[in-house]
Amino acid sequence: MTVHCYTSFSLSYLSRARVLATSIRNHHPDWTIWAIVTDLPPEDFNLDEGGDFDHVIWAEDLFQDLGAAWFFQHNVVEVCTAVKGRAAQRILGEPGCTRLLYFDPDIAVFSDLGAILEALDIHSTLLTPHQLSPETDDIAIRDNEIASLHYGTFNLGFLGLANDDRARQVVDWWASRLERWCHDRLDIGVFVDQKWFNLVPCFFEGVGLLRHPGMNVASWNISQRHIDIATTGAITVNGAPLGFYHFTKIGGAGDAMTERYADGNLAVFELWSWYRLAIERHEDDRIPAGWWAYGAFEDGMPISMPMRRLYRQRQDLRQVFPEPFRSGPGTLQEWLAQRPFELEGL
Fold it and tell me: pLDDT tens across 243-294, in order?
């Protein structure tokens, strides 16, 4: 069995992706790790294959047929999600690939993940629900259960795939939806890829739920999962080994939700402290703070979300300005500067 795993990130998340890769190698040195980089490198920066990652794919190469116009239509979260489907198609085509796992870059692996592979012996597609147990407190119902109704039942920070016909059907459908509809549009019921996956158990055969309490532990389920760290260093969740922890939104909402729901469970805070230090150790000072190559026009002017939405909605603009990142006379940037009213309400 040949296991491949991949993650998708912009270079501002490289330190997190390196922590993920290192943690995978600690427990599965034989797995093949892919980096899907939805960015362009700053000057004098090179992300070599064979270091932290066995293979590096730049999203620009995956989406040559759609060009700059496609990248312009997405913010950084949307586009780092949107590439996941095509990347899965690409990697599943590798000779010998029998299992493919996706992990968000802000995940770390803490023990052997054999339970995932065992589940993929039975199921073609493997999902982790945001919650495994009902909440009882009203505030937790609002924060966790209603949030799952809002943003999606399953957390797509993880996805497990067996390389068979049923999983490839899921991946082809997923890639198609992400190419056109990977948007943060809760007003129409879409949140990147998560809301789409509410439909997967309805549309496809062979879909399984990974109900292991130690897989995809995060702020949205920590209210129901007690973590212990033994004197040996072994970490358990509700008595089961901690497989992987999802350190989502560190420094922001993730911290706030963790403080609310892990109160008294000191081991959770030890994990977060470890993760902060691990990120610091993997920082690369060649990457400027907040770097994202698709975040600005070529003269450095930031691109706002209303600009992206307008360009997304207007086929005429995409036809007239197929290279939307350019600056200067006759560009989309100049057109927008002359018509600020076009952005009102977007």
Answer: 999 999 888 888 888 889 888 899 999 999 999 999 999 999 999 988 999 9
Among 179, 196, 213, where does a domain finish? 213
Secondary structure letter of residue 323 according to DSSP: S
- Burial group, residue 258, by CB count within 10 angstroms (0-12, 13-18, 19+): buried
- Spatial separation of the C-alpha atoms in residues 306 and 67, rounded to whole Å: 20
User: Which of the listed residues 213, 241, 256 is the one where a domain comes to its end?
Assistant: 213
- The pTM is what? 0.96
- Residue 275 placed within a domain: no
Counting the structural domains of the chain, the total is 2
Structure confidence by residue, pLDDT tens digits, 185-232: 999 999 999 999 999 999 999 999 999 999 999 999 999 999 999 999
Structural domain including 318 reads 296-343
State the DSSP code for 303: P
Within 8 A by CB and 6+ apart from 202, the residues are: none
Q: Which residues contact 74 (CB under 8 A, 6 or more apart)?
A: 82, 182, 183, 294, 308
In a domain, 272, yes or no: no
**Which backbone phi and psi does 12 adopt, to 5 degrees?**
-70, -15
313 assigned to some structural domain: yes
Strand 97-103 with 2-9, pairing: parallel
